């Protein structure tokens, strides 16, 4: 009867072998053959193939030439030296390479779809490779998902391994440290995705605002946006406006009637620094609040009390 922790270590080795085969298929078969065709100029631009496969070559080489052989050596020597924690500690920092691949994954899948429609030879070549036995009737997209799922898999296996280790195992300290490192890398990869989404959403907002150069700044954070009524005390009326609140500025905008390019025209920027906001008790215009900043003071009316409160907050 093998000890539990050895079974898990063996499972890690077996899944790593299968994973390296999958990476080989992605890098040495799909990527290499699509690249070869791209160079002839008949299917798709080389740039597109590179964008689809991101940094898969580095990931493949790392696992095939370093991690898998190290793991194999360990398992052959298990009875004399039952430990894998230190090898995984060496692996963990390199897993940050996955940030790039994971971040690129959705874009890669979109590119495959778009170019399969645009370029029949590209689609045919992929279909050809997919028919081979090594593909096991699975699509390129399916194989590409594997690296995205690999880090969470390490985390689960290692958690299990640490749980099953005898209290005085010589590998306990290393394995616990390795688990912590893998956990940090998984966080890093999630943070990379979150940051990419934040930048994409920000870019969409900037396009709606007509890409005014003094507004476009990648470090800005959009906090809230929405329609608002502007109260004109002069003639006691309201007009429809739109607000974008960033961490550093409030943009007071007018919706464009003819939406060519931008959706809004920025009428006014008020710096958040030194800005004051308070509710106004106005019987004629309910749910009204006052925003006063260095540049200007605005009387604004929300559609409901709840909406007014979220703006003020």
Automatic annotation (TrEMBL):
Domain of life where this protein originates: Eukaryota
GO cellular component terms, semicolon-separated: cytoplasm; cytoskeleton
GO biological process, one term: filopodium assembly
PH domain span: 221-313
Chain segments annotated as coiled-coil in the UniProt record: none
Record carries keyword Repeat: yes
Gene Ontology molecular function, alphabetical: guanyl-nucleotide exchange factor activity; zinc ion binding
Compartments it resides in: Cytoplasm, Cytoskeleton
Entry keywords, A to Z: Cytoplasm, Cytoskeleton, Metal-binding, Phosphoprotein, Repeat, Zinc, Zinc-finger
Keyword Nucleotidyltransferase attached: no
Residue stretches making up the DH domain: 4-192
Protein name as catalogued: FGD2 protein
